[in-house]
Amino acid sequence: MASSSSSSSSSSKPGKSYDVFLSFRGPDVRNYFLGHLYTALDRVGISTYKDDEEPRKGERISTELMKAIRESHIAIVVFSKNYASSTWCLEELAEIMERKEQGGLMVFPVFYKVDPREVRTPRESYLEAMAKHERKFGKDLERVGRWKNALSEAGSLSGWHFTDGSEAGFIQHIVEEISTQLGRVPLDVAKYPVGIDSRVQQLRTILNLQSKDDVLVVGLWGQGGVGKTTLAKAIYNAVFREFQGSSFSEHVRENSKSPSGMVALQEKLLSEVLLGKTFKVYSVARGSCLIRDRLHNKKVLIILDDVDAAWQLDALAGNCQWFGNGSRIIITTRDKHILVSHGVNPDHMYEVKALENSAALELFRKHAFQGNQEIEISNNLVDSVLCYASGLPLALEVLGSSLCGRGENEWKSTLQKLAKSPDKKINDVLKVSYDGLEHYAKEIFLDIACFFKGQDTEYIKKVLDSCDFDTIIGINNLIERCLIKDERGTLQMHDLIQSMGMDIVKEECRDYPEKRSRLWLYDDVLDVLRGDVGTDSIKAIVLKLQEPEVKYISPSAFTNMRKLRLLIPHNVENSFSGPIHLPNELRWFEWPRCPTIPEFRDGPKKLVGLDLSNTNITRVLKQFKCFGKLKFITLKKCPSLVCMPDLSCTPTLEELDLSGCENLERAHESVAYHEKLWKLDLGGCPKLQRFPDIPNKNKSLRKVYLYGTSIEELPASIENLVSLEGMDLSYCKKLTILPSSIYRLQNLFNPSLNDCSKLIKFPKVEEDSSDPHIKTGFPMLSYLELGRCHLPEVEFLENFSCFPRLKTLNLTRNNFTNVPICEKLYSLECLDISHCEQLQEIPKVPEKLGTLEATGCKSLSRIPSNLFDVEDVELGSCHELVRNGLSVSDWFKLEEKFHGKTWCHVVLPGGEMPKWLLPNKEGYISFVVSKDLYKKFLGVAFCFVFRAEGERRCRFVLHVSVNGKHGTGLRHYFDSFNLDHVYLGYRKTKHMWRGDDIGPNGPSHFHFSIRVDGNPWSKIIVKKCGFRLICKPLENDLEVLLQDDQLLDSALLSEVGYEDSQTSLEEESSSETEDLQDSQTSTEEDGSSELVYKGFDIADFSIEKHRYSSINPSYRNVRPGGEMPKEFVLVGDSTISFMASQDLHDKLLGLVLCVVFGVEDGKKEISFDIVPHVGGQRRNVVAGTLGSFDSDHVWIQYLVPNVLWGMLEGAVDFSQFEESYLQFRLAVRVSGGTVKKVGYLLSCERLEDDLKVVLEDNQLMDLASLREESFDAEDIGWRFRYSPEYLSKFHIFPRGRD
């Protein structure tokens, strides 16, 4: 009978039945040591489980015992002489160690009259016992191995060793230590810890608790209110029992402000780690020494929350040597640089980000709709609050609580108030990061918040540099403090942080905008400019209107703004025709469409940037000579500008942009003599006919843009631009001659001459006999663009020594018939000769060449033998080659091709795959193999036959994963072809699946799939697909394993040796192909193509689960509730069905699915399968998980038709069916919950009236399901169907793609 103490104890924790579980071998210790230990624990109120059943029956432990282990905080394992002889004890121990690994149990070993080494090695009686078990369970060695691992792990834990002496004192020591451990209580995390579990799991991975020999410092960083402290508390609760001591120091920033604050923090840290002891610290320095001296040999968990200065870390956790092996130090901060300066490894830094849409909605609803609230609030209002909070947990909690119990009018009023000024509680938390900035950084932050959020980073740096700010370090500081982010070359910030910054400026003077430092609001700006009320307080004015508006601006509006440094009005047209007077302090003036030329006062000007684009300026400012600091001039699209200004009056000028000036005729000769100008843009000036002579060496000019001009030739003196790196002459339709002197431009890197249709030749290098020491050639040139020039020959390439670094050569759409032997262009990696229709032969190619694009070379009939060594070859529409016998099989005919390459591919005309590939209709393979078998794999060969109709380039995407973790995929672009073509590719396994993601011992699940990605202008139809796994020869034991365990269908494997010169791929029996086709033919209804593997549970590695992991979560919305939005059309049997012709299908933009599901009996993970059929054929199964839920929810998912019904996500091939109208069907399945309702909408372009009549007359579909858009996909762009504006119509509110 099992017994346990029923006494209550303050150490007992909610949700656990026992404090301690005792594991022991009864005959060894029950009546003496164990009985005394149990009594001593019970005496101090520690609830203890002790199994009194003896003898124990069977070899498996009882359900009751397993439950007791799960329901205990601590397990004490008493290792006695005969402990290992009991299979019951060993099973019990294995269960205990598994619970410990999961983070739910602390384990302490007691070595009772046995040496710890005897347990963990094992030795003596333990060795004898394990040998006996191995003989008994010979066929179940996995079970014995599990016991051995448990003994080894438990024997390595820190515990107590008793050999001789007083048992009473020994037991008392154990009881004291257990009492101390039970005194370590978990922290209160949050009222509603939404979205925490997944983040805790990610942090556990970073913490790497399995590593015992190191001390790890982990940093959590993120903006204020994002949930850093909540996450830190959650991870503390999850792992603190695995350490000898732990401490959570909260509010370090706030608590260290007072003189004695840091000393108090040090005392608290020591007292928490060393429970039961108190410490008196007299100074910070002594406290640091005390922490180091007392904790250097202890495995501890230290969390330092809200650190904002390096000295705080120096005082509390100076370095890793302060703590014992296995210790973990976690720091939370708003300032990433704190972590960098403390030496935290970047891999151990975790950015805490805002919540995703579904989690944000769940958290908000828990606060806003508590209890059985009956007040109805529209979804639009809820969505507006969510949009305002943008996933910030603090905002969701504060706003949810404040709106709880209020009606719709109060919600609307609250939103109106928030639009004017932020919530104080939220603002105060966010403002802490701002308050810690230096003055210059505050100025930078306020400028970005008020004016520049979302704009180009380089542009912002230019503007702010003009104000004498230290912009680079300032922006880096803001990024590290999580106030801004640099995303894809733009500076972004959270909406609430921007609101906080704007509110700081408004607080300068709530009632009088003219007394604020910055103006950006429409009414504020116009009121100040109309009324001459500007003051010295105004530093910057930026107003950017969507459409041009004519407004009155007083000529003296800026007279009193003596500190004005930025003036950027866009689309503001002044009704007053007189000049505007600007202050000399102005640093950046940017007024496109400015109606008059502004005037400045006499004296030095501080202007750095001037932009008067789209104005009628005919000359530049009279006082140009006084602009001693001007660096940037932009006068784009100024139709009245005829001549470039004289630059001699602007000695500091660095960039001049006159692009698009349609009447500009002359470039001023001063360009040749300027010493600072490095960028000159004269592109798009069609009347510009000549570039000025450069009589002397010019070392400043590095980039010149002359595209779209009428220049006929370049001067020979161009050679004097000795620093020139980039020159764009594309679309110069009159350019006929290039001087040979361009070979003296030693720094030229990437000249572009595309679309120079009259350029009859590229010059050859000419030696200068007068000065043999002059260097010629292009030593720095990496890219040369000569596409669409109609060149009849390219003999200049024969002098290969002129192009030692040439990597990319573009010769598309030229008229030459032969290419010179370019084998000695040793650096050439990419050669594009596409659509050279007269080209007949390609000579031997350079060894480094990795890409050859020759699509559309209709006359091409001969290729070199070493072209088979090139990894990326496109020969689309090269029909002469195919007529001469070339096929895709030639690329993989030689066996060594499978060994030397990372990847390779070829595109050729044709409609048949190589016979050695195994057909596969679904475009993916998924298999489970052991690590030993995986080591034999060389790569994957894959192929598909396709037709791409249209004029735009298409692409295919390769997705790979191992054990659910994404590997290195691939995106490849290719031209459209109206005839069938074959794509054949190969990738090495080690370059797709990372070794770190492969399980160390057991089998791993591998996934490999191909998807094509078209657009409205190119329709891709995939007709066939096939795969083959290429591997080294298998040893006999691996072949037996393959057959016995069914880890992988052996027909998918092709063994290649290292000795033979040719493989027998083509000769393999076609029966293998037929067998595999049969094995892949699955029942249409259940769609299962999984195998059941003996001895291995692959439920967690479901083929379906990872098949469509590319479905973007941003295109879905999961919200609490049980009501489906009214616009959706309800269907029965969870199945959507409709009939469509080619015309209608081509009009479809997307299917919006709506599912109401319920959850019973607590929180469960919800997964889904969407099984589509077209014309009775099953197509692309969409599967995934939605998250964990404990109540009814509404799931709305946006799906593109091709993702569902096109083979490999291409277009539906109506020609393969006899019917004009096909049935499109969609079955929805949900696991973990119950489907209560299913509805849908079909989003489409405008339908013609006659098509609507056909649909209605033939009752092909429910017309109520059609949602016609007021645009055509071609008119508004393919990406619109993924835009927030479009998706919000269907209650989906993405914040961006993953």
From TrEMBL:
Residues 1065-1087 have a biased composition (Acidic residues). PROSITE patterns: LRR, TIR. Residues 16-182 form the TIR domain. It comes from the Eukaryota. Pfam families: LRR_13, NB-ARC, TIR, WHD_ROQ1. Keywords: Leucine-rich repeat, Plant defense, Repeat. Residues 1062-1087 are annotated as: Disordered. This is Disease resistance protein RUN1-like. The gene is LOC125314541.
